[in-house]
Design brief:
Blueprint: E1 7-13, H1 17-28, E2 33-37, H2 44-48, E3 54-55, E4 64-65, H3 66-78, E5 83-86, E6 90-95, E7 101-105, E8 109-117, E9 123-126, E10 142-143, E11 156-160, H4 164-173, E12 179-183, H5 193-201, E13 205-207, E14 211-217, E15 222-228, E16 234-238, E17 241-244, E18 248-251, E19 262-263, E20 266-268, E21 280-282, E22 287-288, H6 296-314, H7 325-332
Parallel strand pairs: 1-2, 1-8, 2-5, 8-21, 10-17, 11-12, 11-17, 12-13, 20-22
Antiparallel strand pairs: 3-4, 6-7, 7-8, 9-18, 14-15, 15-16, 19-20
Helix pairs in contact: 1-3, 1-6, 4-5
Length: about 325
């Protein structure tokens, strides 16, 4: 049984892709690492919301399925045997007299020399479809998450939404479904230009400037989605499956109460990923600084910078600029 007061060099709050890479890089810099994740599995939003979704903007991968990326990140991180704690939410962070930190979760207490917050956009929940009687279909053929793409094989699928995820789902389902329709309330999609261009060339039925006004079905499933166009003309779309992707409502929850400086729900950090509290660092989509771009690719860079800064904070004789990875691996003898 792990001692309650075991001290770690860095405790990473958030086990998504950035937290996982930070755990790996912490091992590379020979730090004792713990990861605390509030969800029952690692991977953050990629595993919880988009496991089947393809990602196109990670260096070295022309495209990679979200869960496959997570699986590789987990393998990479576990090379250095970090302590992984899942299904716990950090509720409070207190700086002790010795300048170390006590982290209280909903289940236990953790102790660490430094903290690295990689919590993405915080806790999240989907924006619901706002029509009558929608709740009775949420565990049936109305989906806010897609965990198994094959379950849509040979089905008539209607996708609601106009962002990247909605367009990506429509494109990914088009080769395997019987028919795919996408309904967006605006004239233009908010997805990447290349994805929209691909959508126009596909066999997906595109219904823009349209809004869902009703759904009809029996006790077990939705059969028809009724939409209205900009001229108030009604169109009825027959469906086997309805996928709603109107985005997600996120909340940083208790993180807001820890005394950190924020700008528009993002933690303010400097170029070394330091927050206003000495010993607390942050990386990924949760941070902001001049020129910050919120992508997985840039989050990996934030993580490496944060870990290197933590290394020099704990050991001032070490260098912010690490040696090449081959040299580090030879030293550590993984």
């Amino acid at each position: 049984m792990q001692m309650e007061k075991e001290m770690y060099d860095v405790t990473i709050i958030g086990g998504g892709p950035i937290g996982l890479f930070a755990a790996f890089y912490g091992g590379m810099r020979q730090l004792k690492v713990k990861v605390i994740e509030s969800l029952p599995q690692l991977g953050g939003q990629l595993s919880a919301l988009y496991p089947e979704k393809n990602i196109y903007d990670v260096a070295g991968y022309p495209k990679v399925k979200a869960q496959d990326l997570v699986d590789q990140l987990v393998l990479q991180a576990k090379q250095f045997k970090p302590t992984i704690v899942i299904n716990q939410t950090v509720e409070n962070v207190v700086k002790m007299e010795n300048q170390h930190f006590q982290l209280s979760t909903d289940k236990e207490t953790h102790y660490t020399k430094t903290v690295l917050i990689t919590a993405g956009v915080g806790a999240f929940s989907p924006r619901k479809l706002n029509v009558e009687n929608v709740e009775q279909y949420e565990d049936k053929n109305l989906h806010y998450f897609v965990s198994d793409l094959n379950s849509f094989s040979d089905k008539k699928v209607c996708v609601l939404g106009g962002g990247d995820s909605a367009v990506d789902w429509a494109l990914m389902m088009e080769p395997i479904a019987n028919k795919v329709s996408i309904v967006h309330r605006r004239e233009r999609f908010r997805a990447h230009e290349a994805s929209v261009e691909q959508l126009k060339k596909s066999k997906v039925e595109v219904l823009t400037s349209c809004e869902v006004v009703d759904i009809k079905g029996d006790q077990n499933k939705i059969h028809t989605v009724t939409i209205k166009d900009k001229d108030d003309k009604e169109v009825h779309v027959n469906v086997d499956e309805l996928v709603t992707n109107y985005g997600f409502v996120s909340s940083l929850g208790p993180i807001k109460e820890w005394g950190l400086e924020f700008y528009k729900n993002s933690i303010i950090v400097n170029s070394r990923m330091r927050t206003n509290i000495e010993g607390i660092y942050s990386a990924g989509d949760i941070v902001t600084f001049d020129g910050k771009v919120k992508l997985i690719a840039t989050g990996f860079s934030d993580a490496a910078t944060a870990i290197s800064s933590i290394k020099t904070y704990i050991d001032p004789t070490s260098r912010q600029q690490p040696q090449h990875s081959t040299t580090l691996f030879e030293k550590i003898k993984v």
